[in-house]
Amino acid sequence: MELTGFTLGGVIVSFLAGLLSFLSPCVLPLVPAYLGYVSGLSVAEIKSGKGTGKVVIGILFFVLGFSLIFVLMGATASAVGQFLIKNKRVLGWIAGPLLSIFGLALLGAFSYRQYAERSLLIRLVGWTIFLLVLLVPIFLFSAKAVSVWIPILYLVVVSAVAWVLNYYDVINFDFINYEAKAEVHANTANIFVSFVMGAAFALGWTPCIGPILSGILGLAAMSETLWQGMVLLFVYSLGLGVPFILSGVFAAKIFEFIRSVRGLLRSFEIISGILLILLGVLLVTGWIQQISYLLPQWELPL
Length: 302
Known about the structure:
Layout: H1 8-22, H2 31-39, H3 43-47, H4 52-84, H5 88-107, H6 120-141, H7 149-167, H8 191-204, H9 210-221, H10 226-249, H11 251-261, H12 265-285, H13 287-294
Helix pairs in contact: 1-9, 1-10, 2-4, 4-8, 4-9, 4-10, 5-7, 5-9, 5-12, 6-7, 7-12, 9-10, 10-11
């Protein structure tokens, strides 16, 4: 059995990743604002239950907008993956530590920094050191049989070097939390504006979801065909989109729900970070392939 992200397990993980993205501190608290943007209604009108149909239609096109972008991302990742899957062990050695770093970022590990002023030369040297620590062991060990502790030690060393360099502000991982601002101005909401806002939401994205999305794109890159990668990102979009749609249907109650779970948002973020670290360990050790033997396989002819 070849290592592939397109198993029943991969599909389930994609859907759950979408749910975790919706529950992240970067998205859930902003849901009322999105409902207002796509419907053109005020908070008071949404709370009163007026214009529910308008809210639902707007949020449907909003979800369609970001789903289209994510599916296209899946197609791109899968196309690149046609090359990478032939070198899946090397891919695992690279993706494993990077996903673990993303997970550590979600846990807040890289928020501890000296914020010192460093010259461009020092930063270039820092990134060179990081890339050498990341890439050199791949050429030394990934092509030969080694103890399972070697890739785990490699992952720990890469993560530790990344943390130390980040702490002394020689390099930083602020790009993980980068948010592109894309605003749509309109006096009245309509389905086109809602669709464009959804696409802008996907392209601009929000800080603590990027790492989760990266993990799913990694699964898409390991898919054997372009269509499989697109399906995985479509399922991810469903996991993110279904709660958005339910928020539109029950718009009047969404404010109360958000207040009730606000204290759990950090917990959802921690869970996401831990899952990304575990996925990184599975990739770098090759255990993800062993797990695939235990999971039912997706049988669609894609």
